[in-house]
Amino acid sequence: MAQGGPSNEGVRTPDLSVLSERELEVLRLIAQGLRSSEIAAKLGRALPTIKSHRQQIGRKLGARTRVDLARIAFESFGEGKSDHLLALEALALPRGAVTLEGLLRALVEALDVEGALIALDREGRMLVTEHVLAGEAGWTGEIDIRGGPFAGDMTAPVCHGPGAMDAYPEGADVRALGASLVTGARLLTGDGRPIGLLVAYDRRHVAPVKSRCVVFRAFASRIGAELEAESRRHARA
After folding, report:
1. Domain 16-84 part of CATH 3.20.20.450
2. How far apart are the first and last CA of the chain?
3. Which residues pair with 184 in a beta bridge?
4. What is the 3-state composition of the chain as percent helix, strand, coil, each rounded to the nearest 5?
5. CA gap 159, 149 in Å, rounded
6. Which one of 104, 150, 197, 199 is CB 3.0 to 4.6 Å from 132, fit for a cystine?
């Protein structure tokens, strides 16, 4: 993967005139980062109905995967679409075709934050193995998770707006980053086994991105899959 992430050249917007008014409405909500359950609640429709709409939209627009559909939605209706398209193109690459560093760089650009890191569980110690900070390689070391937002199971993403350090004064992990805004999630294997942490952060006082957790979950899932595949390759070697 080239420095700066995948290119957006050659991306073509499909003809949206083939969609019904309801399908266009659903596509606009997908561009806002809403999940099917959230779209169903917003429109007052049953979840199976929304899933059916997504399938029909994908069929009409030639979107083969959920990532393809999300790319079309962001391209057509999203704000800051270049960053989201960068993220979606990185996520759409085949397994092994993008490095962990490349995924972190795409995540940093998509969320418009200063840094992102991967910390892997090594016998109970969370050691930072990949770190991108302001476009450059960051430090490696240990994340202390005895207190703060990353303590405990943390099965769902942790999303904090400005004031993360104030919200978790005991969190050595947040203090070490000097972060005002923190987003984090456990990295899981396919069978749900936790293997580490994915963290994005910013030391500026910036407003949270509405779709932050949606984008972040997608990256956490992809990075977890990449790490699992890498572990299997090493086991076979």
Report:
1. no
2. 24
3. 158, 199
4. 45, 15, 35
5. 9
6. 104
What is d(CA 209, CA 32) in angstroms, rounded to the nearest whole number?
10
- The token duo for 102 is 């490349």
Examine domains 16-84 and 98-236 and report if their fold is the same. no
For tokens 């627009």, the residue is 61
Sign of the dihedral through C-alpha 146, 196, 137, 158: negative
Buried b (16+ CB within 10 A) or exposed e, 23-62: beebbebbbbbbebeebbeebeeeeeebeebbebbbebbe
Instruction: Tell me if the domain spanning 98-236 has CATH number 1.10.1740.110.
Output: no
pLDDT in tens, 155-183: 555 655 555 556 655 565 666 666 766 77
Q: Counting every residue, how long is the chain?
A: 237
Burial 76-96 (b: 16+ CB within 10 A, else e): bbbeebebbbbbbbbbbbeee
Domain boundaries, given as residue ranges, for the chain: 16-84, 98-236
